[in-house]
Amino acid sequence: MEVLVVLLLSVALSLGNPTQKKALLVAVREEVKQLNELMDVVEAEKRQDAEEDDVEAGKGEAKWKQLSDMGLPPPLQRPAEDRVYDLCPPGYIFVKETRGCYKIMYDLENWKDALEICAQDGEGGSLVTFNSATEELFVHNIIHAYSSGNCASFWTSGFYYVENDNQQWMWYNGGFDFEYTHWAPTRPTSVIGAADRCMNLLTPRLMWTDSNCGVKKCFICEARSRTRN
Q1: What range does the record give for the signal peptide (predicted)?
Q2: 129: closest CA among 176, 162, 93?
Q3: Which residues contact 207 (CB under 8 A, 6 or more apart)?
């Protein structure tokens, strides 16, 4: 892509026609934008790989048990659609469009501990789940508005479910598989039969990637909103 950018720029500068030159310069700017976005993802994945190396070197919880053996908190039950909910636990941000409450957590925790913290802090909450692109967009807006910028990635409730021949990516909240996805290029990197992969958001583009569940990361809690009645 770098070669294409240089070639387009050279051609644009050599043109005498102002209209053609302007059009090519616009194309160059778009190519540069795409190149920068790709480099952001590459750098984020490098940080991700470094975290994986730490876990494999014994600095984290390298081995991961099946979910059924962990004693995890119950999944989040979302509110019904026929009532008005707008009350959140302390410190949570209410999003009307999803009827959900969200909170960015800056303490670095592995996936299991993050899930348990969300259950306690959110009064029965859990790690965040994305059922649609619209819902994910609202959470992205919260991250961009309130994040300190110190988190390389954020745990979500996504995990790689493995039980006999049944192996698939699922959300912890509800147990359904990923109907909507937003994976980064080359992701996920799940190993068949490996029950140690969990999904997180890479900054700054907030695309999805997978990591060893024992890596410690920031995370996003989602809590059920309550009615005033």
Answers
A1: 1-16
A2: 176
A3: 41, 182, 183, 184, 187, 201
Average pLDDT, the chain: 75
Give burial (CB, 10 Å; 0-12/13-18/19+) of 189. Answer: middle
DSSP per-residue letters across 204-226 = TTTEEEEEETTS-EEEEEEEE-E
Question: Residue 216 in contact with residue 102, Cβ under 8 Å?
Answer: no
Tokens of 72: 């995890």
User: In the 8-state DSSP scheme, what is residue 155?
Assistant: E
3-class DSSP state of 92: coil
Model confidence pLDDT, tens digit, residues 12-49? 556 556 676 666 556 657 665 655 655 655 565 666 55
Question: What is the pTM assigned to this prediction?
Answer: 0.68
Handedness of CA 123, 129, 133, 136 (dihedral sign): positive
Would you state the structure tokens that stand for residue 146, as one six-digit string? 């309130």
> How many whole angstroms separate alpha carbon 76 and alpha carbon 98?
14
Cβ neighbours for 200, distance < 8 A, ≥ 6 positions apart: 153, 154, 155, 156, 158, 208, 209, 210, 211, 217
Residue 112 structure tokens: 């299991």
